[in-house]
Amino acid sequence: MPVISTRRAEVTDAGTVARFVHALQVELLGRMAPGIEIVTQSAATVLVDVSVVAVIACGDNEPVGVMVLNECTAIYAGGKFGEISELYVRPDMRSQGIAPHLIAVALSEGRERGWKRLEVGAPWQPKWKRTLDFYLRNGFEEVGPRLCRMI
C-alpha cells in the first residue's frame, strides 16, 4: 500500500486536475469525451471559484487521483451542502484506499463549512455497479437518479 497524502489543488494545478478529469470522462464517455484542451481550460476556470475545492491525491508523492468538491445550496438540504462532482483514481492505483481517503477529506471540509450532507452522482447502472457499490460501502445512500438538461 502506498503512503497516501492529499493537497488542495491551486490554479497552477489545472493541468494535473484536467488530466485526471479527462481520464474519468474518457472512461465514462469514450469517444464522446471532450478533448484535453477543453478540459484543461475548464479546470483553470473552475479552480478559481471559491465555492470549489479540488484535491489531488498522491501515493508515495506521485499524483494518483483527484476529487472536485462543490458547495451548493438547496432548501431540501437545509442550506449549504457539498457535492462531489468528480472523483477519479488511476486504474492501477484503485482498491488501495485512495478514494476513501478523498471522501474523508470531503467530509472534513464539509464539517468545517457546516454542511449537513454530501452528495455524489453515480454513473449509469448497471454498467458502473462497482462504483455505486463503492459509494454505498462508504456511507452514501441511494436517493434516485440524477438527470441533466443542457442549456
Automatic annotation (TrEMBL):
<dbReference type="InterPro" id="IPR000182">
    <property type="entry name" value="GNAT_dom"/>
</dbReference>
<dbReference type="Pfam" id="PF00583">
    <property type="entry name" value="Acetyltransf_1"/>
</dbReference>
<keyword id="KW-0808">Transferase</keyword>
<feature type="domain" description="N-acetyltransferase">
    <location>
        <begin position="4"/>
        <end position="151"/>
    </location>
</feature>
<dbReference type="InterPro" id="IPR016181">
    <property type="entry name" value="Acyl_CoA_acyltransferase"/>
</dbReference>
<dbReference type="InterPro" id="IPR050832">
    <property type="entry name" value="Bact_Acetyltransf"/>
</dbReference>
<dbReference type="GO" id="GO:0016747">
    <property type="term" value="F:acyltransferase activity, transferring groups other than amino-acyl groups"/>
</dbReference>
<protein>
    <submittedName>
        <fullName>N-acetylglutamate synthase-like GNAT family acetyltransferase</fullName>
    </submittedName>
</protein>
<keyword id="KW-0012">Acyltransferase</keyword>
